[in-house]
Specification:
Blueprint (H helix, E strand, L loop, with lengths): L17 E6 L4 E4 L2 E4 L4 E4 H9 L1 E2 L2 E2 L1 E3 L45 H9 L11
Antiparallel strand pairs: 1-4, 1-7, 2-3, 5-6
Length: about 130
Protein backbone atom coordinates (compact mmCIF):
# COMPACT_ATOMS: atom_id res chain seq x y z
CA UNK A 1 0.00 0.00 0.00
CA UNK A 2 1.49 3.30 -1.06
CA UNK A 3 1.14 6.47 0.90
CA UNK A 4 -0.12 9.50 -0.90
CA UNK A 5 2.19 12.46 -0.51
CA UNK A 6 1.60 15.87 -1.90
CA UNK A 7 4.49 17.63 -3.54
CA UNK A 8 4.65 21.37 -3.46
CA UNK A 9 5.62 22.48 -6.93
CA UNK A 10 7.49 25.70 -7.41
CA UNK A 11 5.33 28.28 -9.11
CA UNK A 12 6.42 28.84 -12.68
CA UNK A 13 7.35 32.33 -13.75
CA UNK A 14 4.66 33.76 -15.92
CA UNK A 15 5.89 34.58 -19.40
CA UNK A 16 4.26 37.93 -19.78
CA UNK A 17 6.34 38.87 -22.83
CA UNK A 18 8.76 41.15 -20.97
CA UNK A 19 12.45 41.11 -20.11
CA UNK A 20 14.25 42.99 -17.35
CA UNK A 21 17.44 44.76 -18.45
CA UNK A 22 19.98 47.07 -16.86
CA UNK A 23 22.68 49.32 -18.30
CA UNK A 24 26.02 47.59 -18.74
CA UNK A 25 28.18 50.34 -20.23
CA UNK A 26 26.96 53.83 -19.35
CA UNK A 27 25.97 55.53 -16.11
CA UNK A 28 23.14 57.44 -17.83
CA UNK A 29 21.68 56.49 -21.22
CA UNK A 30 18.88 58.04 -23.30
CA UNK A 31 16.85 55.88 -25.71
CA UNK A 32 13.44 56.63 -27.14
CA UNK A 33 13.08 59.97 -25.32
CA UNK A 34 13.63 58.21 -21.96
CA UNK A 35 16.67 58.44 -19.70
CA UNK A 36 17.93 55.34 -17.89
CA UNK A 37 20.44 55.06 -15.01
CA UNK A 38 22.99 52.35 -14.34
CA UNK A 39 22.22 49.89 -11.53
CA UNK A 40 18.43 50.15 -11.85
CA UNK A 41 16.36 47.38 -13.45
CA UNK A 42 14.00 48.27 -16.30
CA UNK A 43 11.25 46.08 -17.78
CA UNK A 44 10.92 46.12 -21.57
CA UNK A 45 8.81 44.23 -24.08
CA UNK A 46 10.71 41.29 -25.55
CA UNK A 47 10.92 42.94 -28.99
CA UNK A 48 12.39 46.13 -27.50
CA UNK A 49 14.71 44.13 -25.25
CA UNK A 50 16.08 42.23 -28.26
CA UNK A 51 16.76 45.51 -30.04
CA UNK A 52 18.44 46.98 -26.94
CA UNK A 53 20.56 43.87 -26.37
CA UNK A 54 21.90 44.16 -29.92
CA UNK A 55 23.10 47.74 -29.36
CA UNK A 56 26.88 48.00 -29.01
CA UNK A 57 29.39 50.79 -28.63
CA UNK A 58 32.84 49.92 -30.01
CA UNK A 59 32.04 46.22 -29.67
CA UNK A 60 30.82 46.43 -26.07
CA UNK A 61 27.15 45.79 -25.20
CA UNK A 62 25.19 48.76 -23.85
CA UNK A 63 22.55 46.63 -22.05
CA UNK A 64 22.66 43.37 -20.11
CA UNK A 65 20.04 41.10 -18.56
CA UNK A 66 19.29 42.11 -14.98
CA UNK A 67 20.34 39.59 -12.37
CA UNK A 68 19.36 40.57 -8.82
CA UNK A 69 22.04 40.45 -6.16
CA UNK A 70 21.72 37.39 -3.96
CA UNK A 71 21.67 38.18 -0.26
CA UNK A 72 23.97 35.95 1.72
CA UNK A 73 22.84 34.56 5.01
CA UNK A 74 25.08 35.78 7.78
CA UNK A 75 25.86 33.17 10.38
CA UNK A 76 24.62 34.07 13.80
CA UNK A 77 27.44 34.54 16.26
CA UNK A 78 26.82 32.49 19.36
CA UNK A 79 27.43 34.56 22.49
CA UNK A 80 28.74 32.63 25.47
CA UNK A 81 27.39 33.52 28.91
CA UNK A 82 30.18 34.83 31.15
CA UNK A 83 28.11 36.72 33.69
CA UNK A 84 29.20 34.40 36.50
CA UNK A 85 32.87 35.39 36.13
CA UNK A 86 34.20 38.02 38.54
CA UNK A 87 37.08 40.09 37.22
CA UNK A 88 39.78 41.25 39.63
CA UNK A 89 42.89 43.36 39.22
CA UNK A 90 46.15 41.43 38.92
CA UNK A 91 48.24 41.17 42.08
CA UNK A 92 51.85 42.27 41.75
CA UNK A 93 54.39 39.52 42.17
CA UNK A 94 56.88 40.47 44.94
CA UNK A 95 59.63 38.35 43.34
CA UNK A 96 59.77 40.57 40.25
CA UNK A 97 62.21 43.45 40.70
CA UNK A 98 61.08 46.68 39.17
CA UNK A 99 63.78 49.20 38.21
CA UNK A 100 63.72 52.56 39.88
CA UNK A 101 62.41 55.16 37.36
CA UNK A 102 64.80 57.79 38.82
CA UNK A 103 67.80 55.56 38.04
CA UNK A 104 67.21 55.98 34.31
CA UNK A 105 68.27 59.64 34.42
CA UNK A 106 71.35 60.55 32.41
CA UNK A 107 73.41 63.48 33.63
CA UNK A 108 74.89 65.62 30.91
CA UNK A 109 78.37 66.93 31.62
CA UNK A 110 79.58 70.47 31.21
CA UNK A 111 81.67 71.63 28.24
CA UNK A 112 84.87 71.31 30.28
CA UNK A 113 84.18 67.63 31.09
CA UNK A 114 83.45 66.86 27.45
CA UNK A 115 86.68 68.65 26.36
CA UNK A 116 88.70 66.53 28.83
CA UNK A 117 87.18 63.33 27.39
CA UNK A 118 87.94 64.39 23.83
CA UNK A 119 91.61 65.22 24.67
CA UNK A 120 92.18 61.72 26.06
CA UNK A 121 90.93 60.02 22.90
CA UNK A 122 94.15 60.73 21.00
CA UNK A 123 92.45 60.09 17.63
CA UNK A 124 92.19 63.03 15.24
CA UNK A 125 89.64 61.37 12.95
CA UNK A 126 86.74 63.17 14.58
CA UNK A 127 84.65 60.02 15.06
CA UNK A 128 84.03 59.91 18.79
CA UNK A 129 81.28 58.08 20.62
CA UNK A 130 80.72 59.28 24.15
Amino acid sequence: MALKTERAEAPAKPNDGTTILELALYKIYTWGANTYEQGKPYRFKNADAMQLMSEQDLGRPVWKIYRPVKVREVQKVEVMDATSVTASLPVEDPTVLRPDPKAKRIDVGSDDEIQDILKNVGDDSGDVTV
